[in-house]
Amino acid sequence: MSAILGINCHAHDSAAALVVDGRLVFAAAEERFSRIKKDRRFPTAAVQAALDWSGLRLADLDAVAFGWNRPGLAPLHTMRQALLGRLPRSRGWTLTQLYHLASELRHRGGVAELAERFGPLPPVPVLFVDHHQAHAWSAYALSGFEEALVLVVDGWGAWQSTSVFSARGEELHRIRVIPYPDSLGVFYESFTDLLGFERNEDEWKVMGLAAYGRPSIDLGELLRVTPDGYVANGRALSGRAYGDLEPLVTRFGPRRRPDLHIADQDRDLAASVQRATEEALLALVRDGIARTGSRQLCLAGGVAMNSKANGRLLASGLVDRIFVQPAATDDGTAVGAALAAHQRLGQPVPRHPLEHVYLGPELPDTEIEAVLRASKLPAVRVPAPPALAARLVAAGHIVGWFQGRMEFGPRALGNRSILADPRDPAMKDRVNQSIKFRESWRPFAPSCLAERAADYFRPAHPSPFMILTFDVLPGMQTVIPAVTHADGSARVQTVERRVNPRFWRLLSEFQRLTGVGVVMNTSFNLRGEPIVCTPRDAVKTFYASGLDFLVMGDHVVAKNAVLQAALDEAIQPVASGA
Questions:
Q1: Domain identity same for 291 and 158
Q2: Among 91, 282, 338, 524, which residue carries the largest CB count within 10 Å?
Q3: Same domain, 369 and 290
Q4: Would residue 12 show up in a list of annotated catalytic residues for this protein?
Q5: Do residues 127 and 212 share a domain?
Q6: pLDDT band of 108, cuts 50, 70, 90
Q7: Whole-prediction pTM value?
Q8: Domain count for the chain
Q9: Over 80: is that where the pLDDT of 85 sits?
Q10: Which domain holds residue 86?
Q11: Is the peptide bond before 459 cis (omega within 30 degrees of 0)?
Q12: Which residues of 109-143 are buried (b: 16+ CB within 10 A; e: fewer)?
């Protein structure tokens, strides 16, 4: 047996992944355990969870791989770019870079912390994988493609902002690099900041807001689309240092205060940023196809989380097939590093199509029962939780759905989900206001029976990871209004019976009851918190929100006496098999 541990840490989205005998068997982000969103610290809890799941000890590993280059390369490259005049520099900026350099060297890229927390490392290789190489392998090796154009687009890696790879068989070759600060990711995140959201965390809010605006603002001074991709104005986007908004404030006015209402100008700016990003990605793909001859596309890096752009790429006709790494941000590099390590050990990189991302911990029903007893909750054990949950959702209730292994990546895909009726046009506002406690314009995603996707969406392309946006068919926009965005699109998850049979049964029962094979699905968390990991997290979130029911394993909890009566009524036909 071979076992390789992959780790990402210290930038954002710290995570651990475990590949055993060439198969990805576990992956989780540290934030789920620490409850700190986007946690960047060493993933102690995630590593421990990976070892616990597999029954392995650190001494049983054949290698440990980090999804970053050797310590010090990134700050050294950034300082070099400043010396060449591509980035502004100042005394404070230089001291910051020196601090980052010293920190990386002190922690030895995470090796020192691994030994400190888990004891002396076994005499096995400890490998540092180029950051974009880790991103690329995390997509290509799990795509199921025999050849592909692989595109990695993010803020920056060690020194790259965009990398283009040609992949064939067991080989992955980098054929083009766009170096930082010429960065499409920094372009998008800078405007995320200017629009009053959190940089490197809320970019998807800009994507959602864009549907309400017109792409009417010329951003050519900051991002120029070229025949082979784009040219970004790094000095204007980064100011005196990364995160400095002064150049953008000079052009567009002050940063929007998060507590102020969003104006038409904000909506138009978001739409313009989204349109420019899509055009740049289309140009990169056209050029990549010309260089590689491949019409199969793999995407990774933070920009690959832009589901609207991904959907447009698929609809463009440029590519025949597309695979987007579900954990496209830096958490996915833990997976890519573990896979790439095989090559360093003289073995072929294992390649197996990724069918699901239910790769986190799973809590036994006995632990669920113990938490419910400790919380003194009047839980009811039911014989058919999917059928009961479908009946509750069809009756207009909002259900917290906690089942099986936790998902890896930012999307809830039917194991740590909040479910509601997509037919109710008021449901979007209700969930936003009473459960997610967030802006009323924020959209929700549909989970759909895979075999019924063509009835609702165009194109009816497999989308198991909720990372592609499709058009809702005109006749269906009034049928599922709660999951249809302002521009008539939806970020779709298609659910197959063999992949998640329990969630599929819920959707199938909802289809039988209502004639609609779609439910509203959003992540089981409150605003600003990670998705729930444990039954205790689920109970806490249940009582801190406007959820009506909590379905954990085979147990159901009603929020109050009135809802308990509704639960008792719903259980009767389920128990009788009606």
A1: yes
A2: 338
A3: no
A4: yes
A5: no
A6: low
A7: 0.93
A8: 3
A9: no
A10: 3-132+333-344
A11: yes
A12: bbbebbeeeeeeeeebebbbbbbbbbbbbbbbbbb
